[in-house]
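INTERNAL AUDIT FORM
Audit reference: QA-55
Scope: verify that the stored structure record matches its stored sequence.
Auditor: D.O.
Record contents follow.
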Amino acid sequence: MAIGAKRMCMPCPSIDQFIDAVKKTALANKRWVPPPGKGSLYIRPLLMGSGAILALAPAPEYTFLVFASPVGNYFREGLAPLNVYVEDEFHRATPGGAGGVKTISNYAPVLKALSRAKIRGFSDVLYLDSVNKKNLEEVSSCNIFIVKGNVISTPATNGTILEGITRKSIIEIAQDHGFQVEERAVPIDELFDADEVFCTGTAVGIASVGSITYRDKRIEYKRGAESVCGELHSALVGIQRGIIEDKKGWTVEIH
């Protein structure tokens, strides 16, 4: 939020204010936490301009709020592998823009391509870089990873890609499990030779990709409990639910 607020010329709550608000929201809504394995309580901090202004300028007043809602799986497929379409007409972000911060300008541009893909039966859309149209960037609401042997690759965060917290967590877990993780430019050609593909995000968690379609060519990937995605998913969810000891200090008990 601090990174995004600075880019969007907005004041930002302090770290203590932010954490206190999230804790109080979670406590106030604890009766809405779904049973284990049935979903989660999705908590969304939001910072928005609320002061009266018509000019093209930062607002004179801002509102910081935190809301919560019980949710199931983000995708309608549930835990089934996703079928993703590569978009080469529309772009999610451009160099110098706001693609690297979590703001509404990140999501509005994907709606046209996403709606079009869903009508055709796809789960989501994978976007390419807007300059050369040859490197992977992001899926509409999550980061993407490809697996080849013991190497896991994901596009580097260079200003057009969100530095997702789940992305960061999975990179650390993968390294702990002995995988070599590369953050770099990932050419679309590497999709044709990958063993697995998966996505990560706050709402998505970690989701396996069953197929990717690019220019009418469909590529299918390994999936299931024995996959790399399955291994990393079990580790992440295990830490979140307290089944696996948290040695990283990621979890916070709320009283």
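Auditor finding: record pair retrieved intact. The mean pLDDT is 93.
Action required: none
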